[in-house]
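Input (Secreted protein):
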Amino acid sequence: MPPVRSYHRWLPALAMFGAIHALAATPDPALTDTSGCTALIDIVQESLRGEIDVACPVSDKVVCESKNGQIRALLEIIDQRRKRNADECDTLAQVNRLLRTLPPKS
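Output:
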């Protein structure tokens, strides 16, 4: 009966090894879920549309219109990437980089 005792001693270790191996083989759903990125892009779009809706003051009309042109270009980039079914998180990263190029709010 000694082999049975040996199996009982190693059974927890073997079970742990099998569980670790099984977990490593399954993809992490958080890495494939882009719903958070999609929600953030939706928020960014609404915010950018709200920026365009504000009338430009007469004193800064040229700067304001230039900024609005850049905002329209960002919205177009988002629309084009969504039409191509591009990765939403990549789109969010690209839009974030481009948002940093906008002039600061006055």
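The helical segments are 2-25, 29-32, 35-53, 61-83, 88-99.
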